[in-house]
Design goal:
CATH architecture of the largest domain: 2-Layer Sandwich
Shape: flat
Distance between the termini: 76 Å
CATH superfamily of the largest domain: Ribonuclease H-like superfamily/Ribonuclease H
Strand order of the largest sheet: 1-4-3-2-5-6
Helix content: 40-55%
Oligomer: single chain
Order of helices and strands: HHHEHEEEHEHEHHHHHHHHHHHHHHHEE
CATH topology of the largest domain: Nucleotidyltransferase, domain 5
CATH class of the largest domain: Alpha Beta
């Protein structure tokens, strides 16, 4: 009887639930309509004269010949700004609706919805001889791996670079453009139907401005990186965006981003990982975003309190009954397989529980790392987080610290690793001072 009542409730969702399901598409439709109406009211905005800022309205690229000609132009220049407009909440992969490209001379909008083969754009991004300038560009770069199975190359991310020149990370494009170019961008079109045609002049101007100023911002950031001596470090961090693994499904990466996993024992953590893989398989087959299909909190609940019948799965809060009915047996089979494995097949790992004294010491180290990085004009958020410092502390205490620790690798090792190891092993000291209205830091060989 309880299951039958539940099924009736699932068949007739409340008006509140229906409104919530339509929320994001409705907001897109409303935002799109507002932008269309504003197009008739907003005056044209002038573009500042600058050798690296292309003026005028963007070209619309809807034919293969025009796209080939644009790609040839980009290669002749050797550097271009790139961005995309997409809708990500309706399909497994985001649906790309517009591609923006700018050089110092031209600005163009490529229309993927015009039955156009976009491969020349992906090949530009994969060309190591051609620098691609992006801002927070990881999601925009993913199609290169997906469509042509190549890695993005020669990436310069202005958001990353700004973190190496005494700016907070992450910093928005609007703030960077205003600071380095002196131009205030128009209102952001966070939610709009980029898949509708024709687009208004407000849409076109917004899309164009996302890349129009990037070459000038990149040049200004390059000058500051050179002045501070941080060019190599910024280049190393941007080069990390060329790892193809970054753009492919990684259950371990998804696992670390789900809240509540630190409380799970090894066996249930392994079960959650298998459920993440299953959700991705189903989502890909049904062309749905994974977290739209099954929320993270539902997977954590299934891992913490394993279900053994389809009815138990269907009664979990926020679990869609059609998903439970169609795939509940697979969930049960995975659960039983993981629960039946011998205990020695799960790594014991290190306890993540912190004693009060541990917490105070880790907080102190993290505060010191933040101050030291800020004193070197680098955003602490680029280096990592308190969690990384906690891992360093735990490994140092247990004698398991080695070169694989993130804080001892690459530019992080040169910046923070040398400082922490100098304090721990060599009796060094950190010197902090305040001058020219900013914090400055240095590692001295001996304590005062």
């Amino acid at each position: 009887m309880r299951v039958r009542r539940y099924l009736v409730m699932m068949d007739a969702p409340s008006p509140r639930k229906r409104r919530r399901r339509r929320d994001r598409p409705s907001r897109r439709a409303e935002g799109h309509q507002a932008a269309q109406e504003a197009a008739e009211l907003e005056p044209d905005r002038s573009v500042p004269e600058h050798p690296l800022i292309p003026a005028g309205s963007p070209e619309l690229i809807t034919t293969a010949d025009a796209l080939d000609e644009l790609a040839a132009h980009v290669r002749s220049v050797g550097s271009f700004a790139y961005d995309t407009e997409f809708i990500g909440e309706e399909t497994y992969h985001p649906r790309f609706c517009l591609i923006q490209i700018a050089t110092r001379d031209r600005i163009a909008l490529v229309d993927p919805l015009a039955e156009l083969d976009i491969t020349p754009v992906w090949e530009l991004i994969a060309d190591p001889a051609c620098e691609t300038i992006v801002h927070a560009g990881q999601q925009d770069l993913e199609p290169v791996v997906r469509f042509i199975d190549q890695a993005p190359a020669a990436i310069f991310d202005t958001q990353i670079a700004a973190g190496f020149v005494d700016r907070p990370y992450p910093l928005g494009l609007r703030q960077l453009v205003e600071e380095f170019v002196g131009e205030r961008l128009g209102k952001a079109l966070t939610f709009t139907r980029w898949d509708r045609r024709p687009l208004s002049k407000v849409h076109l101007r917004y899309a164009a401005d996302d890349v129009r100023y990037l070459p000038a911002v990149r040049a200004a950031l390059g000058d500051e990186l050179a002045r501070l001596g941080h060019e190599a470090w910024a280049a190393e961090e941007c080069a990390g965006m060329s790892r193809t693994s970054l753009y492919r499904f990684d259950p371990d990466a998804r696992l670390t981003r789900i809240m509540g996993t630190h409380q799970l024992r090894p066996r249930k953590t392994a079960l959650l990982r298998e459920l993440i893989i299953l959700r991705d398989d189903i989502s890909r087959a049904q062309d749905q975003p994974p977290r739209t299909l099954i929320k993270d909190e539902v997977l954590v609940r299934l891992a913490r309190n394993p279900a053994h019948t389809v009815d138990e799965i269907g009664e979990i809060k926020h679990m869609p009954w059609p998903v439970a009915e169609a795939h509940g047996q697979r969930i049960i089979e995975i659960t039983e397989r993981i629960l039946a494995l011998p205990a020695d097949q799960f790594p014991r790992g290190q306890s993540k529980l912190e004693t009060p004294i541990d917490r105070v010491r880790i907080d102190s180290l993290w505060t010191l790392v933040c101050a030291y990085c800020l004193g070197r004009a680098i955003s602490p958020a680029l280096v990592g987080s308190r969690t990384r410092v906690a891992e360093y502390y735990a490994q140092a205490r247990s004698g398991t610290l080695d070169g694989t620790n993130v804080l001892l690798q690459g530019w992080r090792g040169e910046l923070v690793g040398e400082m922490l190891e100098g304090l721990r092993r060599d009796g060094a000291a950190v010197h902090l001072s305040w001058s020219d209205e900013r914090l400055r830091s240095a590692l001295t060989p001996d304590p005062p």
